[in-house]
Amino acid sequence: IACVLSGLPESIIAAACARSGQRVLHVDSRNYYGGNWASFSFSGLLSWIKENQQKTDTSDECEDWRKLILENEEVISLSKKDKTIQHVEDFCFGDQDSAEDVEEAGALPKLPIFGASGAEGVAQESEKECPPMESALPEAESQEPEKATGTKPASAMEGNDTEITSENESCHSTALGESALELGKTEAAPSEISAQEPKKITYSQIVREGRRFNIDLVSKLLYSRGLLIDLLIKSNVSRYAEFKNATRILAFREGKVEQVPCSRADVFNSRQLAMVEKRMLMKFLTFCLDYEQHPDEYQDYENSTFAQFLRTRKLTPSLQHFILHSIAMVSETDCSTLEGLQATKKFLQCLGRYGNTPFLFPLYGQGEIPQCFCRMCAVFGGIYCLRHSVQCLVVDKESGRCKAIVDHFGQRISANYFIVEDSYLSESICTNVCYRQISRAVLITDQSVLNTDSEQQVSILTVPPVDLGKPAVCVIELCSSTMTCMKDTYLVHLTCPSTKTAREDLEPVVQKLFNLNTEKETENEELEKPRVLWAVYFNMRDSSGVDKNFYDGLPSNVYVCSGPDSALGNDCAVKQAETIFQEMFPTEEFCPPPPNPEDIIYDEDEIAPEESGFSNSPETKPEPSTEESSSGGSTAVKKEDNEE
């Protein structure tokens, strides 16, 4: 198997193939794992911004590679220019007076001061810096907790982190909300101070603490009963990562941000709902859990929108708003009644498995998930090559099957199956493909959109569209305990399907929720809002849902994976990976659990290197470097009680 690019679907396929005994070569022209699913430190993101603003072409390093092509063969050239990212704009709103000559902690290059287009000022040397996920190869096994605590920041091991366990053990993991509250109590004093007068953060501090940031290119959460969580548990890949429960669901209504009661306890403890509303809400949510058993209550509205159906249920406007935008999280105009009921049921079924909300977030960012599957692939013999581009696919004219790839060194590498991310396909192959776009924004702010006693909140907020026909905007706010930003700051992700450029789509929402004014004299209303210190906007291609038949002239043994989609979860990537794997190996199980170490039988010729301490078996793993641990590149995992 030859996989080109290390995004989430490709990484899952590579892990599944390696686990089933296939030989896997995984190459990526970038110098980091994940592709458009990656996470970056602050300086790494500035380098990424500069790279995508300049859009430099990659020249061939080997001009005579065509000599390797035989007479009965033809080539399909691959694209050397990534066109999946467009309209990149970054802005610095923080105090820049002392930003000059400030270096990121642990980094060599200097980052000069910059204004409206900050990435233009990044020095060439910063491109040599590795982003947070930069390990030469994914680690073979997870660290022992005792060793991990010596290299990880202390906050990574706090009690509000979540271990993903099997269904039988999940009941022990539901105390996450309590531990989060305990954390809030311990930090009550500083949070009260910061709520009144936020600590002033300068741009130079952000640069200096740049390795504290792990900024995702794509913003997603994991449904606690979603396909990705099930796959992580089944394959035991969950041992390579830690997760934090999303602590609250928010709503934006009448110009204010409010917390939405989700669970039964939240509903009856809520002060914003009257007793009658609480009963209405509980009655409707109970109906949604088994709506299939009561078709007579919704079948007359199957051709109506979910919003129209809610109006017939005698719900107050505030309850309709909460259900539509914060629980079902669907469009007011495009979502049918059945789709809305399915989305509401999915939300409710995910409650209580790991906490008081349905969502989990991986510590150190979404970019950890592709790395976890890469790690599993490496454990079972997969080979990884970063900074290794591919020139073309070699196709046999007679059979029409792809036989090999030719890399930028002019090497010909043969394989039986080829996995290619769609960004590598040239325009001649994608002539019939019409791509959608995703609008993205990433903000660094000085306080939360809704201050509470605890600063350590992971929040999800859906902002309804201002005009009909426009999409709602999903806002995910991350605190420092997620290991994605420095202390006293918040990392805010905004996502929606594109109608214009990312800035045109998302800036109106940013202006509603945050203060963009850099001047000292601001209105009282603006002072109450969190202040944006730094922001970036960009559009990302959404190739999900494109059928392989739309790509012209691709051989039958070449499979195309899409990049990230605009949905909140990761179901699309998991479904795609499993479908491709089953097409290649219909009789093999998809990502079965790995064997226990004591069940592994070694060949005699492996005993000698094992005794000498140089074994590459799954039981042995190298110690991570201090730099890698501090940058958040590899995530330590607490072992379960019953794990050997």
UniProtKB/TrEMBL annotation:
Species of the source: Aptenodytes forsteri
Query: Which PANTHER family does this UniProt record tie to the protein?
Result: CHM, RAB ESCORT PROTEIN 1 (PTHR11787:SF4), RAB GDP-DISSOCIATION INHIBITOR (PTHR11787)
* Any one Gene Ontology molecular-function term assigned to this protein's record: GTPase activator activity
Cellular component per GO, a single term: cytosol
Q: Which GO terms describe its biological process?
A: intracellular protein transport; small GTPase-mediated signal transduction; vesicle-mediated transport
Instruction: Enumerate the residue ranges of region (Disordered).
Output: 119-170, 589-644
Q: Which keywords does UniProt give here?
A: Cytoplasm, GTPase activation, Transferase
Pfam short name (any one): RAE1_2_domI_C
User: What name has this protein been given in UniProt?
Assistant: Rab proteins geranylgeranyltransferase component A 2
Boundaries of every RAE1/2 domain copy: 438-566
Q: Where is this protein primarily located?
A: cytoplasm
Bias type Acidic residues, positions = 600-609
